[in-house]
Structure formats: C-alpha cells, structure tokens
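Problem 12. The chain below contains 343 residues. Write out its predicted structure in token notation.
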Amino acid sequence: MNKLSLAELASITSGTLYGDADVTVSAVAPMQKAQEGDVTFLSDAKYAKYLPECKASVVMVKENQRELCQSNVLVVEDPYVAFARVVQALDSTPLPADKIEASAVIASDVKLGTGVCIGANAVIETGVELGDNVIIGAGCFIGKGAKIGANTKLWANVSIYHDVILGSECLVQSNAVIGSDGFGYANDKGEWIKIPQLGSVKIGNRVEIGACTSIDRGALEDTVIEDNVIIDNQLQIAHNVHIGYGSAMAGGTIVAGSTKIGKYCMIGGASVLNGHIEITDGVTITGMGMVMRSIDQKGVYSSGIPLQPNKEWRKTAARVHRIDDMNKRLKLIEKQLENSADS
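Solution.
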C-alpha cells in the first residue's frame, strides 16, 4: 500500500498546506465516507455541507472554502485536477507484465529498449521496435515493422497490426485493435471487390485507447491521432480519420472514414459522425449526437432525442412522420396569405 505525507501531497499538487505536514494518507475517498488515513476533495459546491463533519486526514479545496474545513486542509487551484494527481501517486494497479516471459514469441531482429517487459504468449514479429520501458501484456500481437515509443503500456490481448506507429507514454486497454483494414470495397455488378488498405495508423504521445476500440488503417494515406487524445471503450474509428490534439471521445462513438476532428473537441458517447466531414477546433458534441455535415464554428451541438414515456414517444414519432405533409400545408397557407395581402 502506498503512503504519502501531506508535505508530499502539497508538492504533488502544487498546493498550500494548512496543518500537520507529517500526517500520512494511503487512499482517496468520497467526502461523506472518508476516514482517518484518507484524502478527499471538494470540486462541486453542493457537497460543501459535508466539510464541517468530514473525517478525512486532509481535504483538498479552493481558497474560498478553507475556513469550512475542520481538519488539515490543502488549498489547490483545481481540486479535481489535484485529485487526479494524488490518485496517480497512490495508484497500486499491477503492471501488464513485469519481465520478458519465456513463452513470448519474439522475432530475432526485434529492437528492444531497456526495461522492456513482455507478457506470456505475446507475439512480436520481425522488424518491430519497442522503446525503453515498454510493457506488452499477455497475449498481445505486434505486427511486422510496428514501432512503439518509450513508456507505453499495452494490456492483455491488444493487437497492433503491421507498420503501425504508437508514440510514447500511451496506454492501450485490452482487446483494442489498431491498424485493422478499413472498410474499403468496390462493387462490380453485385460482387464485392476488396480494396487493400495500404496506409497505416500513426498515433502520437500520451494517447489513451479504451478496451475493444478499433482504429482502422488508412486506405492510401494514414489514419492519424495526435498527442494527448483520450479515446474510451468500444469506439470505431474508420480509415483516414484524423483526430486533433487534446480531443476526447466517449464510449460507443462511430467515426466514418476520412473525417477530420479538430483540437480540443469533446465527443459524447454513442455519437455518430458521417464520413468526409470536418469538425473545427473546440467543438463539443453531446451524447448520441448525429453529425451529418461539417461543423465550422466552435460551440456545443446536440441532436439526440431525450427519453420519453412510451405513450408520449409514440405521439412524437407519429407527428414526425407527418412533418412533410404539415410543411406542404404551411406553404399553401403562406401562399394564400401572400395572395390575400396583394389583392
């Protein structure tokens, strides 16, 4: 179990400590349940009512909430960011691998950096380059000519296809597939002809990719994911998609081919983005958004229909089916009014 003194917490969070610097903590807990030995935080003002009775060894708050606390206080600029840094420091998650297992199959010409660990039954093919401290989990497949940067971790059963480039300090969760074929076919009088996907996937540094997410290789050029992008579980990212720096994409989202997403975009869960469109920087798409056209203005966009009781939803659906008829009738009324005004 990791333990940190409050002095160490202050250093990690760049905060100002009011209290006993020698007190230690070993866990992070919600404010209402925190006990001695725990650190907690206040990022939502509605929970401030719990501060006077909080039993945590230290509470991380903003300056204007310091006087509400009865215990040790760590004043920070952003309590939620401080929480993230403290959890990282206390993290005891085991590594995907801690040595090179004898059952791993590693081609003779693979370039291994220092401190590389490879789990049981992993397969590393010819021409692969693994940077320093790369960790490959059990059962992973790394295809010919792939390159993985320093300090990147792959959990079990990740598949990295040939010639894929994965940057440094990345994290890929189990069963993700990077570099599989894009959905490219020609139709010859009803017969599908597969188009070999000749591009690859280039992923930057500090990128995180969730479990069971698929990222297709490009058809002729590469699929590109820039630095500092976070991708949730079970996404489908099609061939030649380009995702800009610092963007975040929630679970179940589907991005069709050749779509370009700008920097610092946030895509809500279960959204669907059409192919061959561009999303400018700083766009937020709320959950279940259906994006059919390019977006060239920064802002928040929504399209999903909120849940209704079934009886009300049936009425809404019936009205939607009559929209075209209603539009024709409205135009007829407008024309009649115009004729009446002219006469």
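Discussion. The chain has a mean pLDDT of 95. Students who got a different answer should revisit the alignment rule from Section 12.3.
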